[in-house]
Amino acid sequence: xxxxxxxxxxxxxxxxTLDYAPQAMEPLLTAAGxxxxxxxxxxxxxxxxxxxxxxxxxxxxxxxxxxxxxxLTDAGLEVELRALAWDDYLQALTAGSFDLxxxxxxxxADFDLTAFLTPGGALNYGKxxxxxxxxxxxxxxxxxxxxxxxxxxxxxxxxxxxxPFAVICFKNWSVLTQWSRIDGLTPTQQNIFHQFSDxxxx
Length: 202
Description:
The protein has helices at about 10-15, 25-30, 60-75, 85-95, 115, 130-140, 150-160, and strands at about 35, 40-45, 45, 50-55, 80-85, 100, 180-185, 200. By secondary structure, the chain is α/β, with parallel strands linked by helices. The chain has a three-stranded antiparallel sheet with strand order 1-2-3, with no helix packed on it. Strands 5-4-6 form a three-stranded parallel sheet. Strand 4, helix 3 (about 60-75) and strand 5 form a beta-alpha-beta unit. It is globular, with a radius of gyration of 20 Å. It starts with 11 loop residues before the first helix and ends with a strand.
């Protein structure tokens, strides 16, 4: 689910319905008119080929991209993994020169998916547009407190039906300190130790 399992919005029952099941791909591709020949899914003599872009500036992310590409290849897809320098990676995303991309995203604490789901959103590189998703996103954003649980479930359930992205993992960056013990503490989404030299312990 596109929300951390560490917060109440995470719906364990819904998450269990989304287990990784690569064996489910075969009947879906067969129903769509694909056949597997020489280990590769094909339709009308053309292989099912994907361009997968990933940044090459982080060894862990690149290793994850290589693993995903290998898994897709083993499943019978032709995958061109393009490990790109950061500027080239951003250019490929902006130009839409990809079928899949691997990205690291820093969400706000309310897990707002507006940047992913709205036309023109800062993270909507795939030009995703779906009125049903937008309606559910609006209901989620309008809800407060305990009333967010049901709109969140409806949004996540809808996205699970035709997912525009897949969540691989979450991590949490935070700074914990006693109240009023550090002056000049200015963490950012990109760097929790932003301007560390200016911190003063009181």
